[in-house]
C-alpha cells in the first residue's frame, strides 16, 4: 500500500522503516528536516494517490488536534486518517467529526512496542468502522508482530476504543513495573541475597512472573547492577492518570494501578510534605523521635523531644 506518515520521532521513524521493509510505499513528514521525505503536509498529500491513507504519530493534545485539523483542510472525501499517538480516547470523537465534515474517515489506534517495535513488531488496538479497519489491514499486518493476527492486533470497537484499550494497557504496565521495582528493592535490601541480577535473570524462564518487562529489567541491571547511574525520578504519561479517572468514573476498584501512579508522584519529592506531617503527628501524640532538617540535605539529627 501507499500511505503518508506524519511524525517521525522515536516511534514514527521506526514504523516507517518497518512498513518499508514489508514493501509499503511510505511518504514521511516531520517538522524536523533531517528525518522527513517531504517538506510539508501539503506536499505529503500531493504525493499520495486517492483514496489516501495518512497515519498520524505526533504528540497527544494540541499537536494532534492541529495536525488533524490541517489534514481535514487538505484531504478529500474517501481518504482515511489513522491517529496512532497516545491521545485521550475522548479526543477521538471530535477528531472524527472534524474529518467527517470533509467526508474523510477516521480510525484511532493504540500502539505499543516502543523502541523495540522495529524488530519485534507493535501491539495494535484499533477503533473505528469495520470497513475502515479492513481497508487499513495490510498496514496493521505489517506493523504487528509475526504470528497470529489476534495475538498482536485487536479491533477493539468503534472510534475511541483503540485509545481506551491502550490507556488501560498502560495503566497495567504501571502496576507491573512498580511490582518489579519493589521486588528489586527488597532483594537489594536483604542481606541474605548476594546476587540480585542473577535472581531476576533466573525468573525470566519457567516462572509465573516472567515477562518482557522483566527481560528489560535484567538488561538494565546487566549494564548497571546497582542502578547507580539513574535518579529515582519517574515521570508519568497521560494514560496512567486517565486510567485511574476512568476507574473512578466506572466504579471499578484499581488499587494496584492507583498505587503505582502515586508512587511516581512520590519519586519526585526530595522531602515529602505529607511525610513531614506524619512525623510531626507521631511526635505530638507519642513523643516519637523525629529527624530535624539539616541545612543542605533535608536530613538531620534524631531527637526524642
Care to describe what's here?
The protein has 305 residues and is of the alpha/beta class. The chain has helices at 10-21, 41-47, 62-74, 90-100, 117-120, 130-135, 137-143, 161-189, 196-202, 212-223, 238-249, 255-267, 273-286; strands spanning 2-6, 25-29, 53-56, 80-83, 105-112, 123-127, 153-157, 290-291, 302-303. Strands 2-1-3-4-5-6-7 form a seven-stranded mixed beta sheet, sandwiched between helices. A two-stranded antiparallel ribbon has the order 8-9. β1, α1 (10-21) and β2 form a beta-alpha-beta unit. α3 (62-74) packs parallel to α4 and α8 crosses α11. It is elongated, with a radius of gyration of 24 Å. The relative contact order is 0.08. The mean pLDDT is 91.
What characteristics describe this protein?
9 strands, elongated, alpha/beta, single chain, 48% helix, 305 residues, seven-stranded mixed sheet, two-stranded antiparallel ribbon
Total beta strands: 9
Largest beta sheet: strand ordering: 2-1-3-4-5-6-7
User: Helix tally?
Assistant: 13
Distance between the termini: 75 Å
Low confidence ranges: none
Shape: elongated
Could you describe the largest sheet, including whether it forms a barrel? 7 strands, mixed
* Helix and strand composition category: alpha/beta
| Alpha-carbon Rg, integer | 24 Å
Mean pLDDT: 91
The helical percent reads 40-55%
Strand content bin: 5-15%
How do the helices and strands follow one another from N- to C-terminus?
EHEHEHEHEHEHHEHHHHHHEE
This entry's quaternary arrangement is single chain
Amino acid at each position: 500500500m501507499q500511505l503518508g506518515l506524519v511524525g517521525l520521532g522515536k516511534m514514527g521513524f521506526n514504523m516507517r522503516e518497518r512498513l518499508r521493509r514489508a514493501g509499503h510505499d511510505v511518504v514521511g513528514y516531520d517538522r524536523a528536516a533531517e528525518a522527513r521525505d517531504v517538506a510539508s503536509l501539503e506536499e505529503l498529500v500531493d504525493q499520495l494517490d486517492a483514496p489516501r491513507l495518512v497515519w498520524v504519530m505526533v504528540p497527544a493534545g494540541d499537536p494532534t488536534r492541529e495536525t488533524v485539523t490541517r489534514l481535514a483542510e487538505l484531504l478529500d472525501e474517501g481518504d482515511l486518517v489513522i491517529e496512532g499517538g497516545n491521545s485521550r480516547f475522548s479526543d477521538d470523537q471530535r477528531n472524527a467529526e472534524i474529518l467527517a465534515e470533509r467526508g474523510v474517515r477516521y480510525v484511532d489506534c493504540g500502539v505499543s512496542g516502543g523502541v523495540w517495535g522495529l524488530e519485534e513488531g507493535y501491539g495494535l488496538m484499533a477503533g473505528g468502522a469495520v470497513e475502515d479497519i479492513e481497508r487499513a489491514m495490510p498496514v496493521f499486518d505489517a506493523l504487528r508482530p509475526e504470528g497470529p493476527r489476534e495475538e498482536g492486533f485487536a479491533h477493539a470497537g468503534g472510534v475511541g476504543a483503540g485509545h481506551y484499550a491502550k490507556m488501560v494497557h498502560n495503566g497495567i504496565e504501571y502496576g507491573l513495573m512498580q511490582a518489579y521495582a519493589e521486588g528489586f528493592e527488597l532483594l537489594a535490601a536483604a542481606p541474605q541475597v548476594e546476587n540480585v541480577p542473577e535472581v531476576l535473570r533466573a525468573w525470566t524462564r519457567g516462572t509465573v512472573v516472567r515477562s518482557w518487562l522483566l527481560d528489560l529489567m535484567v538488561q538494565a541491571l546487566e549494564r548497571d547492577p546497582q542502578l547507580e547511574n539513574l535518579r529515582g525520578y519517574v515521570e508519568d504519561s497521560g494514560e496512567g492518570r486517565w486510567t485511574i479517572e476512568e476507574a473512578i468514573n466506572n466504579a471499578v476498584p484499581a488499587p494496584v494501578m492507583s498505587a503505582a501512579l502515586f508512587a511516581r508522584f512520590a519519586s519526585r519529592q526530595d522531602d515529602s510534605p505529607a511525610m513531614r506531617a506524619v512525623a510531626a503527628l507521631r511526635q505530638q501524640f507519642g513523643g516519637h523521635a523525629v529527624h530535624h532538617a539539616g541545612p543542605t540535605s533535608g536530613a538531620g539529627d534524631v531527637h526524642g523531644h
